[in-house]
Amino acid sequence: MKKTIALLTGGTTGEWVISVKSAATIAQNLDADKFDVYKIMLSQQGWFYEPADSVKIEVDRNDFSLTIKGRKIKFDGVYIAIHGSPGEDGKLQGYFDMLQLPYTTCDALTSAITMNKGYTKAIAAGIDQLSIARSVQIFKDAHYDLGHIKNELNSPYFVKPNNGGSSIGMSKVNHVNDLDAAVAKAFKEDTQVLIEEFISGREFTVGVVKLDGKITILPVTEVETAKEFFDFEAKYTPGVATETTPALIRPETRDRVARIAEAVYVKLNCRGVVRIDFILKEDEGEFYFIEINTVPGQTATSFIPQQVAAMGLKLNDFYTKLIRETIG
Question: Which parts of the sequence bind Mg(2+) 2 (predicted)?
Fold first, then answer.
């Protein structure tokens, strides 16, 4: 029996461009013999299904259904492919929970918490062999003292919007005198900002997913860029960064990374596929947690499709297993 799946794309942040590309990859690789897929665009203007042969049809948000030529279509589940708000921060998850409609991502609470980098690090702290950079979280409408922070934290710093994604509004600050401008830039994207000590080392990312009832660690990717850090341009402009999958690391390092990544997935109560970014210091030494993405990119050049290919699994089969695990 075919399942009727809504593939939800778009969003209300600057990441909607990436969401559209992710949804295109997912749509191309969802098995047409197993799923009837309706791609739905969510934007500030509304939620719409746009069939190729007619005008766009608005979603009935009372029960998340479509009416096409007099026929009401209800969904067995939702594949959420929206990066940023409202697909990655728990808002949509809460809505679908109330409708008792299953979806492919982490639940509402985990999505909301992991969207906040500071809160995520507070929960992840204490996991065996996981290190976290020292940081200070500041709020736009509350008092903060940058002079005190400059004394507390060692430069250089990373300054990040606390709830942002795709490195939008993020800066690396090499000189303390530039901290004020970096904070102002980050506050344009969010009302909370995280200032953390820069950790020097090799940068990696790894996908973690539950498939066939078992937590699976995908092959690790190493990310190298000539830029100061892996920013929006480096992430989405071909040739700016070098990505090696599987990463050239020792077997014992790979096993340690897998143990830590699984522990993060469990402690944050994740479901579906997530991606954990981290740094290994010096000679594959300490594991420093950077952040977790609960709706990782699925564009043709994104990390998860790369890692799925590296483990010898077709994207078609990967998405089928993911839907069966999360939607049923």
Answer: 291, 293
